[in-house]
Design a protein that fits this description.
Layout: H1 25-33, E1 42-46, H2 50-56, H3 61-81, E2 86-93, H4 101-117, H5 119-124, E3 128-132, H6 140-153, E4 160-167, H7 169-183, H8 195-200, E5 212-215, E6 234-237, H9 247-259
Parallel strand pairs: 1-2, 1-5, 2-4, 3-4, 5-6
Helix pairs in contact: 1-9, 2-3, 3-4, 4-6
This protein binds farnesyl diphosphate (FPP).
The site of farnesyl diphosphate has 18 residues, from helix 2, helix 3, strand 2 and helix 4.
């Protein structure tokens, strides 16, 4: 098993089936298929499709972002109640600065509002907040809100909610390398960097790598998200646009995850010999 899969020492907690409260008939069916003792420890989500959702309704793009906050709320609360250890949501990438200024300003404002409005839900569910990305490049008011959200939730013991904000996977690896170099004070000649050491300098330090990466809106890309950490993640892409991603769609992703066989580059359980290569024609 890769080194960063083993770092977290949190004992496995199995949620009670009724922890989600009242469920719809569709959700009940999905829950029947789900083994609550084999849920992913860390779920990462690329929340995509807000713009297309709005476009389909002849609304401005920002209406899609606003609608997307409801899906974020549902996903956060459901994962917390399922006792998933960590949830990471991709809210704003380093590439998103290329969007029109009005949309960027709206997204920053929406995040600030979100942190304020959702704090009771975060606290009620014992969630600890972290932010992944280059915080020092964000507007000062956003930095302040981010700091406060982390401080207010620092003592919580439940799920870790990571918001990737001004985040880039390549930037994260570069930041980790620079942090390691700084530790060596320029005297690192001949030193070798290990995978374990690099993992310890990533924004996700201390968290298990995502077991499941969900991407909405059907795009088959990882978009510079958690490049190091998703080395062995199961990827689930759904056509559903992010504002339509409800609890049933999340449960569906978890059911699909449990159908996958995870081998980490090894061989299937019970398989003693590596599979023979396919016979070449004429052999
Ligand atoms: C992508 O849709 C989504 C984003 C840029 C992330 C923003 C997410 C939200 C506002 C959801 C709320 C989350 C939090 C944590 C406040 P897109 O604009 O790329 O959609 P498109 O590909 O259809 O244009």
């Amino acid at each position: 098993m890769p080194v960063s899969q083993t770092k977290s020492h949190k004992p496995l907690q199995v949620p009670a089936p009724e922890s989600l409260g009242p469920v719809t008939a569709e959700e009940a069916k999905l829950l029947e298929k789900l083994d609550l003792s084999r849920l992913p420890r860390h779920v990462a989500v690329i929340m995509d499709g807000n713009g297309r959702w709005a476009q389909k309704r002849h609304l401005p793009r920002i209406a899609g972002h606003r609608a997307g906050t409801q899906s974020a709320r549902t996903t956060i609360e459901t994962c917390a109640r399922l006792k998933i250890e960590a949830l990471t949501l991709y809210a704003f990438s380093v590439e998103n600065w290329r969007r029109p200024k009005t949309e960027i300003d709206f997204l920053m404002q929406l995040l600030r509002e979100y942190l304020k409005k959702e704090m009771p839900l975060i606290q009620r569910n014992d969630i600890r907040m972290r932010f992944l990305g280059r915080m020092d490049e964000l507007p000062a008011a956003v930095q302040k809100d981010v700091r406060e959200a982390m401080e207010k939730t620092a003592g919580n013991q439940g799920m870790v909610l990571c918001i990737a904000l001004n985040y880039g996977g390549r930037a994260e690896i570069v930041d980790a390398m620079n942090a390691i170099l700084a530790e060596h004070n320029g005297n690192g000649a001949g030193a070798r960097i290990t995978e374990e050491q690099l993992s310890r300098h990533l924004y996700t330090e201390g968290l298990p790598d995502p077991d499941l990466l969900v991407r909405t809106s059907g795009e088959m890309r990882v978009s510079n998200f958690l490049l190091w950490q998703i080395a062995y993640s199961e990827i689930f892409v759904t056509e559903t646009l992010w504002p339509d991603f409800n609890r049933a769609r999340l449960l569906e992703a978890l059911v699909e995850f449990q159908k996958r066989e995870r081998r980490y580059g090894g061989i299937r359980e019970g398989q003693t010999e590596p599979a023979k290569p396919a016979r070449v024609a004429g052999e």
